[in-house]
Amino acid sequence: MSSNWPKVRLGDYCIKIGSGATPKGGKKVYLDEGEISLIRSQNVYNEGFSSSGLVYITNSAADKLRNVEVQERDILINITGDSVARVCMAPREYLPARVNQHVAIIRVDPTEFNPNFVRYFLSTSEQQRLLLTIASAGATRNALTKSQIENLEIIKPNLEKQAAIAQQLSSLEDKIKVNNQVNQTLEQIAQAIFKSWFVDFEPVKAKINALAAGGSQEDALLAAMQAISGKDKAQLTQLQTDSPEHYNQLRTTAELFPSAMQDSELGEIPEGWFLEPFSNIARLDTTSVKPAKEPEKIWEHYSIPAFDDGMSPAFDLGVDIKSNKYRVFPASILVSKLNPHFPRTWLPDVFDSNAAICSTEFMQFVPIKPNQRAFVAGVVKSESFQNGIMMRVTGSTGSRQRAQPKQVAEMEVLLPSEELRNIYSVLIAPQLESQASNIREALNLADVRDTLLPKLLSGELQVNSTDRVHTKLPNDKDEHDLNALISEIENELPPKSHFVVHESSRKQRHKLGMIGYSTTITGDLGQGGAEYFKLPAFLSELRSNKILQGVFSTVVDSATGVPFLMVGITTVLNKFLGEKIKLDQRTAIVLLSFPENRTCKISQLLCESKKLILNAGLPPLDEDSLSGILKQLKGLGLVTPRDHAFTEWTLVEKFEHKGARRP
Fold this sequence. Notes:
Blueprint: E1 7-9, E2 14-19, E3 30-31, E4 36-39, E5 44-45, E6 48-49, E7 55-57, H1 59-63, E8 75-78, E9 87-89, E10 97-99, E11 103-108, H2 115-123, H3 125-136, H4 146-150, E12 153-155, H5 159-198, H6 202-212, H7 217-229, H8 233-242, H9 244-255, E13 261-262, E14 269-270, E15 274-277, E16 282-284, E17 288-289, E18 298-302, H10 304-308, E19 314-317, E20 325-327, E21 333-336, E22 345-346, E23 356-358, E24 362-367, H11 373-381, H12 383-390, E25 393-394, E26 402-403, H13 405-409, E27 412-415, H14 418-458, E28 462-463, E29 469-470, H15 482-491, H16 506-511, H17 523-526, H18 535-544, H19 546-552, H20 566-577, H21 585-592, E30 599-601, H22 602-615, H23 623-635, E31 639-641, E32 648-651
Parallel strand pairs: 4-10, 18-23
Antiparallel strand pairs: 1-12, 2-11, 3-7, 4-7, 5-6, 8-9, 8-11, 13-14, 15-27, 16-24, 17-20, 18-19, 20-23, 21-22, 21-24, 25-26, 28-29, 30-32, 31-32
InterPro entries: Restrct_endonuc_typeI_TRD, Restrct_endonuc_typeI_TRD_sf, Type-I_RS_S_subunit
Family: Belongs to the type-I restriction system S methylase family.
Protein name: Type I restriction-modification system, S subunit, EcoA family protein
């Protein structure tokens, strides 16, 4: 990491460096709910603090660990085991807290160092490799000592520069946190609706109470509509006037709830509902895959660490995956059987069904009817189901308890009518897609952060007093030639031979200049058929499209030379097209997929578009979606069909429509 900033010994600028301990006293010192958090290695990630598996300890146990009390601006670093060197900031929302013996506190002098800057420095690929090398030297288990941390060399810009760099990177992380918070809210809404309908039976009880009070069947129906919607009678009347379609949907839903209860083994349940084995609505699938048999293939790997690290899969080469895995199906629901007292339920957003795998520590349940995935997920996440999992656990009371999948699959669950299951799933499906979209966006933001990080710390990219990244563009012109920008980026890439790697994280791919997600690229670009997407492949697509080169010759705002252009495609196209027309990324990529001669059969266009859309981490594209996009572009005057069957399309020579800005 080259820069003109001085290098200093980290220990000379620290107020404290020290690790904690595991509280003595066994299980009795832990609390299900409490005020004192005990932070362990599974909570510390370079991407940020993870509350998954967080435990709490009693006040008396915390007092014995007073010397490792965590403060708000502390840096936490894992110092032992496979997770050694992972680093994050202390989580404000989980203080007061202590750390155990696997985590160390680094408390820097705030008059000399910005703590966030130090954290980002320690999380760079270069420093992570260095720390791992130090930790693995001369020992059977990875471990970092206090003196080794103290002796680390760190660059030392002035405090203002440190703060500006940290602010630039933190702004991306803040957006990631917002996405995570939105997802938590969406999840709470889904669970609240499921509990109201299928656990507390509120619409059923509303009908029963209305009838018991002497009301008519219509009164009972209106009472159920109120319970479902949260609206009073006056608001329902207004809804019928303002949105009759919504009102009728609500009424149809309310009609499906019975108006009486019946006895069952679980006590009273709604009339007509029944108890059946969970396997009747979701099959337990254990289809085995051996990734090592395809060593150069990149696998979409759903693992326990990946779940804890923001619920985004890792993309690992087969050669690095030593054990067998389960094949993951697009509609599946993954439930951790390892230590189920820390619930982990994952609805994977599968990018490539031919490459998606998961850890055998997951139980994979595939809905018998894929359109009921949301309902099945609601069942799995319900308190009664989670309690049932805990009752089917084997192993000690330590850290290796496992649920028994076959027993879980045969648990009895309460099933409402088929129609109600479908309606709930349709209602919740958009929320699931929003959650998946937020995770994809968070992953893209993390990729941007990881790409910016070494450039900011090396001084290659500069920040000014307003904390905005800037860099000099070719000749400092307001308008920049696309080929010049591409060449500038290409010159920063390592030799092609460096692109075949055997390290598994996306950080490694970004270090080598790759962007996006995996796709099959054959020939020279594929390095013998390996599956990954490289920046040169994207640039090649861009260069070969003369029409779009003209578009990209327009003004490029805030260009930094960072190899991250997918968002730039949409930004520049929308700038070119004018304020009234806004294309999303998928639509922009369809334009990019047209060949140099501008005419393409829809089958070829679908193939090209699907590859680039997968690389951009966007929702998959099918023929119906593509046809819809092409018709939208036709209405904008950007493409035209060559035949009445719409099997062949042409990109217009010039984008002729009102408001276009031409280069």
